[in-house]
Amino acid sequence: MSRCIETHQRTLVELLNSASHDDAALLPLARAAGRVLARDLVAKADLPPLANSQMDGFAVRVADLTPSVPPQPGDAEGIELPVADVRPAGAEPARHTPGTVTAVMTGAVLPEGADAVIPVERVRPPRFDVPAVTISPDVARSVTEGTFVRAAGSDVARGAVALPAGTRLGAAALGACAALGLGPGTEVSVRTGPRVVVVSGGDEIAPDGHAPRPGMYHDANGPLLAAWLSEAGAESVTRVRVDDDPDAFVRALDHVVTEARPHLVITSGGISAGAFEVVRQGLEREGRDTWFDHVAMQPGGPQGHGTFRGVPVICLPGNPVSTWVSCEVFVRPALAAAWGCCPSPRWFTAELGEAVRPLDTRTQLRRGSMEHPGDGTVPRVRLVGGASSHLLSAAAHADVLVRIPPGEHELAAGTTVAVLPVDGGVLPAGAADGTERTGEPA
């Protein structure tokens, strides 16, 4: 039974996460967005640095909320305390006067001597421009030390690990760095992109710089993979050409792994059911933990993976469009998860601009071009070229991949489908993003 797309995605993420990620570089935070920390980031100060109010309200001593004598019949219901001071956020720390309340705004430093905050809406009158406030018995009983107080170091304590190695520097993580006092010029240690070896070729592929004789072709996959990996943040790409000789393939791979010390090897072609499947034959003999089979998709059905001399190997199909689609659907989420050198795939939704007949049992990943209506309506996508995996020139005109789920019935124009921007493709404003996931379209 064919493997589903999501299972193969997760498998490759696990494979690449098992690789060495020891190489690191220092980058200023301003250039580190989306990268992955190579070292623990230790807090040099408490966050927050001082106890502060979680609410707009009144700072109190809990001890002042218990009357010294029991209330008598006719007494006003509740405890009346004068407002001694007003402290906005950003004001210098101050002392709290016992037997009073201090008006504090959200984020204001808790006055020394106070140990709780009562929200303004829970006192009478619920205002700040008054000389005193009354706190009802029910409210007084609900207040304990620390109520609505953000304790110093409650987010992260000084000397503790604020962001562990492996954390992706997304918006929240970069916000935490700023809160800890790290400016845009502060350098952090981040993982570099991987060193990648790309293997392409076959007896039918002419060497670079040579005119192909009849029956041969120019190598599209080597340049395609090198360009794609460079755009995806690879530190370096080393290309290797092989013929349909498993022994020569293993020798060439052994040599380049020793010389280039790659983090990852990516091959194209030679993995299906033919008589000259050099990659499959070589890795099944010399590799480890190999898997070669089909994923329930078109194009890109034949897929494989394993390790060679301890280096992860991702094996892609050889038809150029299949290679390219596999990079976007499988290699990109794996690189994003393991190295953080490229953004994770972000699937969105759009409406089909034309009717499409799906395959019975396999997901199609068709190439498409977005229409930009500019009027706030749901974006539409029209297919570019046919479904065949050799139509590389047509694919070059696409700016999205269109996920057509399997089924027996034609999808009418206007049907909602998942789309993935590729090669710099950008969806128009207002595009729905309900299917957005890390490499896992709905």
Automatic annotation (TrEMBL):
Reactions it catalyzes: adenylyl-molybdopterin + molybdate = Mo-molybdopterin + AMP + H(+)
Domain of life of the source: Bacteria
Metabolic or biological pathway, per its Swiss-Prot or TrEMBL entry: Cofactor biosynthesis; molybdopterin biosynthesis
Keyword tags: Magnesium, Metal-binding, Molybdenum, Molybdenum cofactor biosynthesis, Transferase
A Pfam family that the UniProt record links to this protein: MoeA_C
Xref: InterPro entries: MoaB/Mog-like_dom_sf (IPR036425), MoaB/Mog_dom (IPR001453), MoeA-like (IPR038987), MoeA_C_domain_IV (IPR005111), MoeA_C_domain_IV_sf (IPR036688), MoeA_linker/N (IPR005110), MoeA_linker/N_sf (IPR036135)
Enzyme Commission (EC) number: 2.10.1.1
Main enzyme class: transferase
Cofactor: Mg(2+)
GO cellular component terms, semicolon-separated: cytosol
Gene3D superfamilies, sorted: MoaB/Mog-like domain, MoeA, C-terminal, domain IV, Molybdopterin biosynthesis moea protein, domain 2, Molybdopterin biosynthesis moea protein, domain 3
Domain MoaB/Mog span(s) in chain numbering: 197-337
Function: Catalyzes the insertion of molybdate into adenylated molybdopterin with the concomitant release of AMP.
Protein name per the record: Molybdopterin molybdenumtransferase
Organism: Kocuria marina subsp. indica
Lineage: Bacteria, Bacillati, Actinomycetota, Actinomycetes, Micrococcales
